[in-house]
Design a protein that fits this description.
heterotrimer, A mainly alpha (579), B alpha+beta (269), C mainly alpha (252), A: 579 residues, mainly alpha, two-stranded antiparallel sheet, globular, C: 252 residues, two-stranded antiparallel ribbon, 6 helices, elongated, binds heme-A, binds dinuclear copper ion, binds copper (II) ion
């Protein structure tokens, strides 16, 4: 990809500066976008292999032969890590955020362009470090994306627990650095770079989401960083933070003592739960934004939306224990976490209601971005509603670590999150690349993915209720699990269809990059500032012209004006032009 | 496109309802004292949340369709009465639901040790389970895994040969339990975290190395059940299982005798 | 395909009309807190006032992040201190925490060095501010009162602190207290080590700015660097006393 970007502008001086080591937030946004695209393709491919190995263990993969249990677990770990970190924590926030946060605020540059660039390059390095784990002796880590100690702390505990796990930890450490850097940049940009008149309560909800998420990143990733350092200490410096005494692994005593495995879980989930909201808040922002644009109505309950985002962000740090109900944690603590978790479900529900309120009675335009936004709402409701069930310790004790949980988080995080990413892609593509994406292909892609998502992940609830544990690399080990093979086969078929359906998206993306019809400045008739610029965005952004914001971000519907919307920087209504 | 999308949403909802009503796979037979209560809890949850699911999807499908051309509705910036109303409503539902489930949890985890509870020590080792009974003297012998553990010599747990209390301990690879008799499991792990999961008993509890975790239940139906590991513990996680044999009191007594009969060194039979 | 176009002129005329709530006749810089006055013109972007405010927010965010990190460590420390763990061999819960004997003399020396360095940095900041004010007035600063190289002094004191910490660690090593072994010493090394690392970060920036004049750094940017770093530096100092207090009061 990068190469074609370069060739496009061979004329201008120092291509390297403009498209590779650039401090232009727009280019950095695009770089993040393609990084995530690569990550999601790898991640989806891994999930494909997993699904196939699970139900047809005998199938031979090219260059790899039959997959072994350790392969499955390595695929699983990498799948989860890639998707959570390098897809959903990267493209919605750093990808679209880097590109559009300054523009929507009316600035031509972020506060710390170099920090922004550094953030991207560190993230890129950490991506390659993670991938490289596949090619070291022992292969990638087996311990899942949660890397529970002591499994993750003892190299002897499994094939991938040697170098593979070290690489995982290093990669995540780097990822923390990169994300924090860009988060600092986002916060400073939001606070300092707003155009005149852009009051906080006039910001598009996307900007609010990016801002709150940046704060979450600041607080959550620092903890994960510490945890990673401590785990590396246990693995190589002989400390015993997470390794208790008296262990025997593969017949050999372990000379550690005094560590607590639960400590890792507390540290990880104190990061991990905010992380899932880091993944979904920008997606929520995009959805709120797009629903308003395509329903041609103001966002319903703008203030409530902002409040809910902040509430979710704050509560997100108080609920981590709901991942640990049966971990041996004090049952009394279970109550507290359960109540707080229920509390966090309320603002999420409020957002859902406001989305419904926003589309209510609008003259909806069903362009592809709208389709995906509607899909987001549907999937968010479906995936979210299992949350309150999981939040009950007694009920969670039964479905914990079963496919029920897998269903929960794929519907609400994986699928809903990606729907928002798709929506944003179709929506902002013209502004980013100056061309429109193909609507027919877009619709086709939407239908495959929507039906595929439900077909793949809905049945997993039944597996879970029937007691099918997660992270089983084969169905043959346990009788009652083996009995569920037919349903697993169905899921695999659905997954294969869904994933191959993404080819439509890729074709559309790369075809439109070159051949798509040229886009005018404001194809969707939006009010926000990025659409006052020509498409694609000029390198100089607003280039000297300073936008002056005079209205809220969601002025849709008749205002006596020619169009049914009012740009945020429209000249204020004078007595004369009144009707 | 509008109608297609709305139709799709309705059909998806119907499909999901059908999936759950037909449920080709469902809870295993309840075989413990706490199982019926838990099943009831789960089913109420599914009904409640299922109802909200249907409501949500249908409302979404509706709103995607109906157009109101009079611009008043399209100037809607919000309606604080409405918002407070539904916030309160959904909060009430969720919290009522949450509180209603609390009792079950406290009953499941209440620390009241049944006087006559049968104590069994469960130890998870990559990748199998060991069950230790105190034997006639009712006392567990001392264990020092790093020192004495010799799986090949029939002492996988590392019972201290020097400890008399350990002489009569029974170490078995199947969990044999008397029916209708409260059991207290004493969960241990030798290497990494494992998790005891007996779906039929609706019982799940992690076994964490370096921790001494107790959990209780009462099997209520004679039969064989599968105990599996539900915490990722490495390669063999998917096949780390054991059989739970629930038998009548006297059969259980007989089994205990047969195990202790003429054995000098502790360990596997 | 290009991802940015050359055209800067705006074809798209802003829409006329408009309504909606909170619409106010436009006054320049109304509301929007962050009126950086930066609209792509380089001179705006590099105007020192903007850079200063930008930098302060950035460093504040960074400080929040580091604070979270050390709060986390503190919680870990206290929790570990308070919880017994199961000893397979002894078959009972034991408190494995060996209280540390802190070398107070040395630690106080280090603390003093750190305080002095903060003071020196503050003085450096003031004198640079003064100079730049004179510069803006176009007067050469009066040579009357002596003006020691406060920045250099800060850096030296900073290195002094690091050296002192090394000394402390060596002392522990000679007592046989290593990173491995007891949780108390592991956490001690972890926390003090991470603190030293963060301090070293600030030190590098200060060193760079101190050498700025040789590196052809513009005085103004030098000054801004100092202004911003000083916040971080004082923060790291306060952090140190927090850690010291923790180690003293929560010995176990
Ligand atoms: C984007 C990510 C995301 C989001 C948003 C959520 C949202 C929620 N999650 Fe989820 N969760 C994950 C990602 C996410 N989760 C992941 C990745 C895991 C597994 C990690 C692992 O173990 O690997 C997990 C696991 C997980 C667990 C642990 C399960 C277990 O391991 O045993 C729990 C337990 O409480 C939980 C609870 C919740 C709750 C209560 C919400 C709530 O916020 C949900 C709120 C939303 C709603 C309640 C829907 C609102 C809609 C309506 C109310 C419709 C009604 C409308 C009408 C009637 C018109 N989640
Ligand atoms: C964002 C998160 C995400 C996403 C998208 C996915 C996508 C998928 N996941 Fe993933 N999964 C996880 C996060 C995710 N998963 C996590 C965290 C775990 C837990 C790991 C662990 O236990 O440690 C997990 C575990 C997990 C399991 C459980 C395995 C087990 O426990 O034994 C399974 C099993 O079927 C599975 C299947 C799938 C499938 C079939 C897809 C499919 O691929 C869905 C179809 C794919 C798409 C629709 C996406 C395609 C998108 C694009 C091509 C481009 C979009 C990007 C841009 C525009 C930049 N996943
Ligand atoms: Cu033992 Cu999984
Ligand atoms: Cu969570």
């Amino acid at each position: 990809m990068q190469r074609s970007l370069i060739s496009a502008h061979a004329a201008t001086p120092s291509i390297l500066r403009r498209y590779v080591f650039t401090t232009d937030h727009k280019v950095i946004g695009v770089q993040y976008f393609f990084l995530s695209l690569a990550a999601v393709l790898v991640g989806s491919f891994l999930s494909l292999l997993m699904r196939i190995q699970l139900v047809w263990p005998k199938v031979r993969i090219p260059f790899r032969g039959e997959l072994k249990p350790e392969d499955y677990l390595a695929l699983l770990t990498m799948h989860g890590t890639l998707m959570v970190f390098f897809v959903l924590s990267t493209v919605p926030q750093n990808g679209f955020g880097s590109y559009f946060l300054p523009l929507q605020l009316g600035a031509s540059e972020t506060s710390f362009p170099r920090l922004n660039m550094a953030g991207f390059w560190i993230t890129l390095v950490s991506f390659f470090v993670l991938i490289s784990a596949f090619f070291v002796p022992g292969g990638a880590s087996l311990a899942g994306w949660t890397q529970y100690a002591p499994l993750s702390a003892l190299a002897a505990a499994g094939p991938g627990q040697g170098m593979g796990t070290d690489l995982w930890l290093v990669s995540i450490g780097l990822f923390c650095l990169g994300s924090v850097m860009s988060a600092v940049n986002f916060i400073a940009t939001t606070l300092r770079k707003r155009a005149p008149g852009m009051r906080l309560m006039r910001m598009p909800l996307t900007c609010w989401a990016w801002f709150v998420t940046a704060i979450l990143i600041l607080l959550a990733f620092s903890l994960l960083f510490v945890a990673a350092v401590m785990l590396l200490g246990d693995r190589h410096a002989g400390t015993s933070f997470f390794i208790p005494g008296g262990l025997i692994v593969s017949g050999r005593p372990v000379d550690h003592s005094g560590g607590s495995p639960l400590l890792w879980q507390h540290l990880f989930w104190f990061f991990g739960h905010p992380e899932v909201y880091i993944a979904v808040l920008p997606a929520m922002g995009v959805t709120s934004h797009l629903l308003s644009v395509f329903a041609r109505k103001p966002v319903f309950g703008y203030r409530a939306m902002v409040g809910a985002s902040i509430a979710i962000g704050a509560l997100g740090f108080m609920v981590w224990g709901h991942h640990m109900f049966v971990s041996g944690m004090n049952p009394a603590a279970g109550f507290a976490f359960s109540t707080l978790t229920t509390a966090i479900a309320v603002p999420s529900a409020v957002k859902t209601f406001n989305w419904l309120g926003t589309i209510y009675g609008g003259r909806i335009r069903f362009a592809t971005p709208m389709l995906f936004s509607a899909g987001f709402v549907s999937l968010f409701i479906t995936g979210g509603l299992t949350g309150p069930l999981l939040a009950q310790p007694a009920l969670d004790a039964y479905v914990h670590d079963t496919y029920f949980v897998v269903a929960h988080f794929h519907l609400i995080m994986a699928m809903a999150g990606l729907f928002a990413v798709f929506a944003a892609t179709y929506f902002w593509f013209p502004k980013m690349f100056g061309r429109m994406m193909n609507e027919r292909l877009g619709a086709l892609h939407f239908w495959i993915t929507l039906l595929g998502a439900y077909a793949t992940f809905m049945p997993m609830h039944l597996l879970g209720l029937a007691g099918h544990p997660r992270r089983y690399s084969a169905l043959t080990g346990v009788q009652y699990v083996a009995a569920m093979a037919p349903l697993q086969k169905f899921i695999t078929v659905a997954a294969i269809i869904t994933i191959s359906g993404q080819i439509v998206f890729l074709v559309n993306l790369f075809w439109s990059l070159r051949k798509g019809p040229a886009a005018d400045a404001n194809p969707w008739h939006c009010t926000t500032l990025e659409w006052t610029l020509p498409s694609p965005t000029p390198a100089a952004g607003f280039g000297g012209r300073e936008p002056v914001v005079t209205g809220s971000a969601y002025e849709y519907g008749d205002h006596g004006a020619v169009e049914d919307f009012v740009m945020q920087d429209a000249a204020p209504k004078t007595g004369a032009s009144a009707l | 496109m509008s109608t297609a999308l709305r139709l799709a949403l309705v059909l998806i909802t119907l499909a999901c309802i059908a999936l759950f009503l037909l449920h080709p796979w469902w809870f295993p037979v309840p075989a413990s004292a706490q199982a019926p209560a838990l099943d009831h809890g789960l089913k109420t949850a599914l009904w409640l949340l299922g109802g909200l699911f249907i409501a949500g999807q249908i409302v979404l499908a509706l709103f995607l369709g109906l157009k109101r051309s009079n611009s008043s509705s399209r100037h809607w910036y919000g309606n604080w009465r409405l918002e407070i109303g539904w916030t309160a409503a959904i909060a009430a539902i969720f919290f009522w639901f949450n509180v209603s489930g609390g009792g079950l949890w406290s009953r499941m985890t209440s620390a009241d040790v049944h006087s006559g509870a049968l104590r069994v020590e469960v130890t998870g080792v990559q990748f199998q389970w060991y069950f230790r009974y105190p034997g006639p003297d009712g006392a567990f012998g001392r264990v020092d895994a790093p020192k004495f553990a010799r799986p090949d010599e029939g002492n996988p747990l590392g019972l201290d040969p020097g400890d008399p209390a350990g002489k009569d301990d029974i170490v078995s690879s199947t969990l044999v339990l008397p029916v209708d008799h409260p059991v207290e499991l004493d969960l241990r792990a030798q290497d990494v975290i494992h998790s005891v999961f007996i779906p039929a008993m609706r019982l799940k509890q992690d076994a964490v190395p370096g921790m001494d975790i107790r959990t209780r239940f009462t099997p209520t139906q004679i039969g064989n059940y599968e105990l599996v590991c539900s915490q990722l513990c490495g390669l063999g996680h998917y096949r780390m299982k054991a059989t739970v044999r629930v038998v009548s009191e006297e059969e259980f007594k007989y089994w205990l005798k047969s195990q202790t009969a003429g054995r000098e060194n502790p360990g596997m039979k | 395909m290009s991802i940015t176009s050359e055209r800067v002129d705006v074809k798209h005329k802003p829409k006329l009309g408009g309504g909606g709530p909170g619409k106010i006749p436009y006054r320049r810089g109304y509301g929007g807190g962050g009126d950086d006055g930066d609209h792509g013109r380089p001179e705006d972007f590099f105007s020192s006032g903007q850079r200063l405010r930008r930098g302060r927010i950035g460093i504040a965010a960074g400080i929040v992040c580091v604070t979270a990190l050390f709060i986390g460590l503190t919680v870990v420390y206290v929790a570990r201190l308070g919880t017994p763990h199961w000893d397979e061999a002894l078959h009972r819960e034991v408190y494995g925490w060996k209280p540390l004997a802190l070398p107070y003399g040395l630690l106080w020396v280090n603390s003093t060095l750190l305080v002095l360095s903060s003071v020196a940095l503050e003085l450096a900041r003031r004198s640079m501010l003064e100079k730049s004010e004179f510069a803006t007035m176009g007067i050469r600063p009066p040579r009357l009162k002596l003006d020691p190289p406060w920045l250099a002094i800060t850096v030296v004191l900073g290195f002094g602190f690091l050296a002192g910490q090394l000394w402390v660690w060596n002392g522990f090593r000679s007592q046989g207290l290593f990173l491995r072994g007891n949780p108390s010493s592991s956490l001690f090394y972890l926390i003090t080590g991470l603190h030293a690392a963060h301090l070293a970060g600030g030190l590098i920036v200060l060193l760079y700015t101190a050498c700025g004049s040789w590196l052809r750094m513009r005085f103004e940017s030098q000054r801004i660097a100092v202004e911003i770093t000083s916040w971080y530096w004082h923060f790291v100092g306060v952090l140190w006393f927090g850690i010291f207090a923790l180690l003293h009061f929560a010995k176990g």
